[in-house]
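Quick question: who can interpret this fold?

. . .
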Amino acid sequence: MKKWMLTAALTATLAVAGTGGAVAQDQIRLTGSGASFPAPLYLTWFKAMGKTNPDIRVDYQSKGSGAGVRDFLNKTVDFAASDSAMSEEDMAKVTEGVQLLPMTAGEIVLAYNLPGNPKDLKLPRDVYPEIFLGKVTNWNDPKIAAANPGVKLPDLPITVVVRADSSGTTSVFTNHLSAIDEEFKKALGAGNTVNWPSDGKFIKSPKNDGVTATIRQTPGAIGYIEYSFAKLAKVDFALLQNKAGSFAAAGTSGDALAAVKLPENMIAWVSDPDGAKSYPITTYTWMIFRKNNGDPAKAKALRDMVEYGLTEGQKAAGAMGYLPLPEVVVNRVRKAAENIK
């Protein structure tokens, strides 16, 4: 029941944000689909933009990065959104040309549900990959206990919650685990989908909100979700040990992004950032556009949508649990958006 209520609430929030009443005859309607990771932020943008620019209506469906890219390739949407960017193979299929734009950034947290609600649980970087390999299987494991002196850890099996759909969040998370753990890289690798261990302690749920709801209703659960969903659902999430050896909390620093240089294709990864304060699982998330849209009015509307996200939209990012883009990135994205014709 709790899972249904949370999922319904999140779905209702997204649905309301993505609608704007009947479409006027002279109104330009843009359709998009894809990543659930940035969906709460994007839909907040689109609703607010509809008030300041009523000539443009944007409808966005949160259905996962893989599904969004498929819709884009099938030409059923005007733009897509993906946390895993887009492969060169898929880009080559788009005869109109592809323009990827990082529009926001975020952090992936390990949310958990433990009896007694212990706060600020610390998970070392040699431990949390083993949880997702199915090797650390109980909450009172000596490795977890050693990192959390004074915390009463229950003698309780760990239930691991992972994504059931093709997910950019999974891609970012598994890229990070592969970067810090050679065994994980060899056994599972990285991608929108991976072959998680098949024992009964792994549960699959769709989208970020589905994983969040499953964690909330399952004592002993842990799973990877976007930070804003953890904030919205008010679930506990772990402090993760970063490359410098410090335990960092999500939402405390966007320093890792400023150090990343975006190449010409605008795709860059932050798999294991440097810095004593850097949270270790940080990522850009992209909108995907056609360079040639065949309609000057629609192309201008898409560019206006991007500009709103780069200006007013960035102001909402921090409060909602996302990382505002550094100014140097905003300028690069604004320039690249000129390719949307």
Notes: The domain at 2-105+283-339 is CATH 3.40.190.10 (D-Maltodextrin-Binding Protein; domain 2). The CA atoms of residues 83 and 169 lie 6 Å apart. The chain has two domains: 2-105+283-339, 108-258. Confidence is low (pLDDT under 50) at residues 1-21.
